[in-house]
Specification:
The protein is built from one helix and nine strands. With 156 residues, the protein is an alpha+beta fold. It has two domains: 98 residues, Sandwich (Immunoglobulin-like); 46 residues. The strands form two sheets. Strands 2-9-8-4-5 form a five-stranded mixed β-sheet, with no helix packed on it. A four-stranded antiparallel β-sheet has the order 1-3-7-6, with no helix packed on it. The longest helix is centred in the C-terminal third of the chain and has 44 residues.
């Protein structure tokens, strides 16, 4: 039987964007990663690994030459921070599996109180800038009035 190795796996996010090596996700959000492998005869097994253990071995074949494994996590927690997820594709024991990987970067979830404090601090900064601009304008206008008054006195 003829064996043709598959292409290297490509990892996409749920929005079908190419995943980054350090892929950000928000704490508390859903995570969906798609590992896609093109080609291979016979079609490859496409599996997700975490710490050298199989995380998901459910894959499907689409369009004759594309094999995919979709990994869905319902809620991303801080435990996923810096986790290395590896997608492996293999169609024979005679060759080393082809791999692609992502490292998860989990953004901390802000609660409403923290968001409000940050918003208030930014509002305070904006107000301070506005007052500074207004004070400069007042000083500028007062100087113009003063110069205009001096100018009129010299010609009267």
């Amino acid at each position: 039987m003829l064996t043709v190795p598959p292409k290297k796996p490509v990892i996409y996010t749920g929005a079908r964007n190419l995943a980054k090596i350090l892929q950000p996700f928000n704490e508390g959000s859903e995570m969906s990663l798609l590992c896609e492998v093109i080609g291979g005869l016979p079609p490859p097994r496409v599996m997700w690994y975490i710490n050298d253990e199989v995380l998901d071995d459910t894959y499907t074949q689409e369009h004759d030459d594309i094999t995919i494994n979709r990994l869905d996590i319902r809620r991303v927690t801080r435990n996923f921070l810096r986790t290395r997820l590896i997608c492996k594709a293999n169609n024979t024991q005679l060759m080393t599996p082809l791999t692609s990987e992502v490292i998860l970067d989990v953004n901390r979830e802000c609660n409403q109180n923290i968001r409000f404090i940050y918003w208030m601090k930014s509002v305070e900064k904006r107000i301070a800038v506005i007052f500074k601009i207004i004070s400069y304008l007042i000083i500028f206008i007062l100087n113009l009035i003063k110069k205009n008054t001096v100018y009129k006195k010299n010609f009267v």
